[in-house]
Amino acid sequence: MFVFIARRIFQMIPVLLGVTLVVFLIMQMVPGDPAVLLAGESASDEQVQQIRSQLGLDEPVVTQYFTYVKNVAQGDLGTSIRTNRPVIDEILTRLPITIELAFWSILVTIVLGLLAGIISATKQYSFSDISLMVVALLGVSLPNFWLGLMLILYFSVKIQIFPVSGWGTFMHVILPALTLGTGGAAIVARMTRSSMLEVIRQDYIRTAKAKGVKERIIVYKHALKNALIPVITVVGLQFGALLGGTVLTETVFAINGIGRLIIDAIRMRDMPVVQGTILVVSIIFVLVNMIVDISYRFLNKRIDLN
Amino acid sequence: MQLETVKKVKKPLLQVNDLKQYFPIKGGLFGRTVNHVKAVDGVSFDIYEGETVSIVGESGCGKSTTGRAILRLEEPTDGKVTFQDKDLLGLSKRKMRNMRKDLQVIFQDPYASLNPRQTVGRILEEALEILNVVPKKERPQRVKELLEQVGLQAEFADRFPHEFSGGQRQRIGIARALAVEPKLIICDEAVSALDVSVQAQILNLLKKLQRQYNLTYLFISHDLGVVRHISDRVIVMYLGRVVEIADKKSLFENPQHPYTKALLSAIPEASRKRKKERMILKGDVPSPIDPPTGCRFHTRCPLATEQCKVKTPEVRQVGPEHFVACDVI
Amino acid sequence: MNKQDQDVLVVKNLKTHFFTEDKVTKAVDGVDFKVKRGETLGIVGESGCGKSMTSLSIMRLVPSPPGKIVDGEILFKGENLLDKSEEEMRKVRGNEISMIFQEPMTSLNPVYTVGEQIAEAIRIHQNAGKKEAWNKAVDMLKLVGMPSPEKRAKQEPHELSGGMRQRVMIAIALACNPELLIADEPTTALDVTIQAQILDLLKKLQNELGTAIVMITHDLGVVAETCDKVAVMYAGKVVEYTDVDSLFENPKHPYTEGLLNSIPKLDEDVEELQAIRGSVPSPSDLPKGCLFAPRCPYARELCHQSLPDLTEMDGEIKVRCWMHTEEWKREDTPITNDKDQTDSDKGVTLYAAGNS
Questions:
Q1: What's the complex ipTM?
Q2: Given A35, A152, B42, C151, which is the most exposed site by the fewest CB atoms within 10 A?
């Protein structure tokens, strides 16, 4: 087990290097010279040149990349062009908000998804199964910014139980978490259903029945733990989609998280911030996937260590 | 007796020498090969033309791996396989494919190897086509002959594999193997999945075809009753090694190796005759990753001595056609 | 104790059918047998004969839909199990009637330790506390001959070999000291040396605990080794019910005879085995008359016309065959099946798609 975790962490290194390279290259390819942008329209060529050498932009691309990686490794993501604060500080002030939103959203995903999936599977082809799966299909297909707007329209504007936007209290969390979590919940529900149906056919469920175990216990004790194994992978993947979703959701609900930071930075061509946030989000994604892998392995010891 | 002297003079059709098949196990921090599953670990035997040699043993003894290694379905780690004076392991892939004309195989589940979207006639024609043994316009006629030879109606050529029962599919598998007029057929658990009444039909068919075409069989099975019925000589394997080779009569009536004895006594016999004394082995077969030192059977052997734990027994002759790898008996 | 009390299980005219959109599959269609206290009954037959479905019917575990027990009685200690509610059945399962299955590799839940899985049965039926049940589970492992039971109890199924897992299954089944154990091909997936260990264990435990066993198997060797009485099944029906000595020495039904002749013997050499011609009919497309008639070497016109009853012969032996009836003596039509066809499938209908 220890070797497995150690190896998974070890395997993260090339992935993370790859991420820095991709982020770096994308930024290289974006049109527009950051030095010109920083210096302003009216600046002379010398001034631009000076800023360029100050930022190391006159070095060869490869050297720039290595400097970038070295800085990143030391926690230095550069300085925001817009606010002149270190990018890492910008990110760290916004990150807790996004993490909180992500936490509640993934909770929505897991709780709603599992419940719907289990009900569907245990009552296969019943009215509740079919209606839940229709709802799940809608959940997968509806874009979440639209869902967000509809929720605001109804719950905040029409019946006015939740605030329209902003952050701070638990009431602020509910609508964005629902917006962000339902898409995943729909996918998790469908996955849980098929996984449960698969597990219920297994020989060990027959063994449990032959032991005289109650139907309810068979479902929640014997079947669910096995059925969760593939669901965990889906939840992990949903986390990635969720991070992407924060960009839109935070914009719709005017929440000052990482998502909005990216949008604002792109709009202002604040390249160090864009680079930094993408990098941080990617690292989080890689970490979450590693945790999913490890817990997957923990739940399912039958998977060969290799 | 006369036959045996003839055999002695004749060259073997297939010679297997010190065959080894190791499968690597990856592990550790960097996914290197940390160990090997020694599935087949130094197996040698000869097969003469027209005879049936069986390999028996329990799961994990390496009997099927041996068959696959001879056919190079998996590339063997080491050893030598000579078929009609040709070194099979030295052949190029292409030349080996041509050898498949002489070396055919029948598996336990013929259904898995029959294309479900092809008619039986098409499957058989394809076999004829690949090795180009029969001119194109004679092929449909040959397919009909093949089907009749394996006890199926010629009209079945137009049907698809799923329309047949297990026994009939195995007949199709046999017809396909037979199509290229091979010299040696390796039957890998070929009747194991069949019900006894159908199994008997297939065994009879295999015997009939052997007489008709002077076929040689390498018959791999875990069922000693079936092995006794079909074989001339029997090889008993345990954990990747040969423990005993003998002609059928000596093996079943006078087994020498303690493992062979245990195996024979473990089979529940379908009769009410006087119950033989049971010899029940303790424990499970050890892992082929770290097989026991010395004689591999010593951990379960009732006769094991200290010597058995360290010294690997050599195969030695105990009768005219009887060889055994045990130092105690 | 009178005779009725001695019969732990009496199955009368059991019929379990499967209803799918376009057809009815009569998986079990007329099964009769009884099992006495401490006795072993073998149910033997080839694949698709309905022997496993018979065992699931006794446990009332037939997958439903599409399966349904449509007729018959299953009397366990005099009470008809078919009249019991689901709740009452749960108290019987794993407690008074237990079952072990063919696949030890997949019959245990992979995510719980084997100790927990044994303890669960004890906690359900014996109202035992967690600790008490665990200790009993370890005792059970000791009873089934598991080396170092305390350590093994904490292991998960994937850490055990096939033989060890089957021992665990036996421990689960016997944990509540049931009166009847149904063993559905318990050794089919195991190697012969391990099979010998398991059969030996079952025999030993039966002697100690006095459990009646229904042994479901396709292997007549296992029958010879373990059973007292035997029910031979063919295409959903019992065709012969007899004691084990008569089965091997004097088989009454041509199918039983054919089965015995098909098995290659370990102590004699024959050039050719006497195989049964053709193959088992598809359960959704059964022949008219005696189900075995199309494959039977003795069949006459009568056999193709009507189905014989399971009739009592001498003692407790019962046979479903016209040859052993009064009608047979009057039957003078010629034998219908040509013996020359033993090696061929000619004249036998093909399997319909999906039924093999």
A1: 0.84
A2: C151
